[in-house]
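Work Package 4 report. The design task specified in the project plan requires that, given a folded chain encoded as structure tokens, an amino acid be chosen for each position. We show below one input record used in the internal validation round.
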């Protein structure tokens, strides 16, 4: 985060503000200083599929935009008021070439991003909606309190109605 503070620019965001939209060009890596962001795909039918929620301390960027200079494949929007720091990926790369701390920061970013993506793919492709919901509650309880049921359902990959049924089933199964 120190590198972001030195080379990046602070962006105050209000709930509903987009940092970038699917299809736009954006070559920044974003560090979440405060607030809550959501990364989502907009499907052809207009529905959202939520890729991730990003709390304070999180880092994100569209890899295809950063590496290949292609348009972003997802959108990034603030759910809560907060502050993000935008760091041009090219500046991060330049710093990494001349400074071992910067190179290590870049490796950490890419490693964290890759691990997070692999876990998310595993959950979506291999686990049931009930298991995805349980993992969400176990790994991100503070985010579960900060997002709407519709966003939670879009993250898990179900409709809000299906999420209500899952919650009801899990409550019925819980030990009394």
């Amino acid at each position: 985060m120190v590198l972001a503070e030195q080379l990046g620019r602070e962006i105050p965001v209000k709930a509903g503000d987009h940092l970038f939209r699917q299809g736009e060009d954006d070559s920044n890596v974003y560090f979440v200083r405060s607030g809550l962001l959501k990364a989502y795909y907009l499907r052809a039918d207009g529905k959202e599929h939520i890729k991730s929620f990003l709390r304070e301390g999180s880092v994100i960027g569209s890899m295809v935009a950063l590496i290949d200079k292609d348009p972003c494949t997802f959108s990034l929007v603030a759910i809560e008021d907060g502050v993000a720091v935008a760091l041009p990926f090219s500046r991060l790369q330049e710093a990494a070439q001349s400074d071992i701390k910067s190179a290590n920061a870049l490796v950490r970013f890419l490693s964290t991003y890759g691990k997070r993506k692999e876990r998310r793919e595993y959950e979506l492709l291999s686990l049931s909606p009930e298991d995805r919901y349980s993992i969400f509650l176990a790994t991100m309880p503070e985010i579960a309190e900060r997002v709407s049921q519709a966003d939670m359902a879009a993250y898990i990959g179900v409709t809000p109605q299906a999420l209500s049924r899952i919650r009801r089933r899990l409550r019925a199964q819980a030990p009394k």
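Helices lie at 2-7, 63-68, 89-98, 100-126, 129-139, 141-144, 149-156, 160-173. Validation will be extended to a larger panel in the next phase.
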